[in-house]
């Protein structure tokens, strides 16, 4: 567990060092970083690399927590692998994380940050998101929780 927290902190420090001349770290970035670290310390680990895009604004946060049907786990992982990379390239995508609970291999978390509600709405209209949504509802158990709220 210490290695996971240490790795997240190293990635964060590295990101700040690389971007320090261009970035003003606002309160929402600090809160998001702490939130990700808390998830990591409570059993969630990053399933993909941290996005290096940080913007200053009142952004939109999307948090989705769910359990996959055990027999559908591998299908979910394959499906998510086709969603993450293009979603991170969508206009207005600042952060796009997919995390797995290390204590419950069937529990997952999406954590996204978008520049605006419009950029999130545009993401919902992309081909990769629509393809994902055709299959995703059949893979998860009924305890899906999604919250969308301003970052600040």
Structure summary:
With 152 residues, the protein is an alpha+beta fold.
Topology:
Elements: H1 2-19, H2 27-41, E1 44-46, E2 60-67, H3 73-89, E3 93-101, E4 107-114, H4 117-124, H5 127-135, E5 145-150
Antiparallel strand pairs: 1-3, 2-4, 2-5, 3-4
Helix pairs in contact: 1-2, 3-5
Question: What radius of gyration results from the CA coordinates?
Answer: 15 Å
Percent helix, as a range, is: 40-55%
CATH arch. level architecture: 2-Layer Sandwich
Number of strands: 5
CATH C-level: Alpha Beta
Low-confidence stretches: 12-56
Average pLDDT, all residues: 75
> What is the overall silhouette?
globular
Number of domains: 1
Within the largest sheet, what's the order of strands? 1-3-4-2-5
| Total DSSP helices | 5
- Biggest β-sheet description: 5 strands, antiparallel
Query: What fold name stands as the CATH topology?
Result: Alpha-Beta Plaits
Strand fraction band? 15-25%
Structural class based on helices, strands and sheet pairing? alpha+beta
